[in-house]
Write a structure and sequence with these properties.
With 154 residues, the protein is an alpha+beta fold. It has a single domain, classed as Aminopeptidase (3-Layer(aba) Sandwich). It is built from three helices and seven strands; from the N terminus they run ββββαβαββα. A hairpin with a 2-residue loop joins β1 and β2. The mean pLDDT is 85.
Length: 154
Amino acid sequence: MLEHYPVFPSQEISGSHQYFFDTTHGHRYFVRFTPAHYLFQIDCAPCKNTFEVSFHHEEKIQIPDQRVKYTIIHLILKFISEHQGPIVYVCDNLDKKERGRRRLFNRWFQESPSNEFRHNSTAIEFEDYTQIVGIITFEWDLNADDYFNSLEIF
C-alpha cells in the first residue's frame, strides 16, 4: 500500500477541524470535519459527537493519484479514533455526480486494510432529487445500526 501524504492542520472554527495536504503534482487538498449533530433527531445522544467530512482540491483539473485516497482515508480513520464518534458524508446531486461519489467511498473502504471500521450508505430518493448519506464508524460501535434511523435530513 502506498503511503499517505503528510497532513497539516489548517484551521479550527466553531468546532470544525480543517486539514490540508499537497500532492507531488502540486495540488492542495482540504479536508474538513464539521459537527453534524444537526443531521440527527435531537434525542439521539450518540449522535452528538458526529462529524461530517468534506474534501476538495484547489485545481480545476484532477490528476489521478492513489496517495490522495490513502491520505483521505487515513485522515478520516484517525479523526474517528481521536474523537470516538462516527463520520457522516452527504453527497447531493447538484452536479449529478452523487452516485459516483458513493461508489468512490464504497471502493475506498472495501480496499481499506483496516477491519476495525464499518462503512454503510444509503440513497434517499426525492421526487426530483437524490441524496446519498454515508456513515463511517467503529466496527464495535453499538449504535452503528441506529444512526440511519436517527437521521433527520429528509
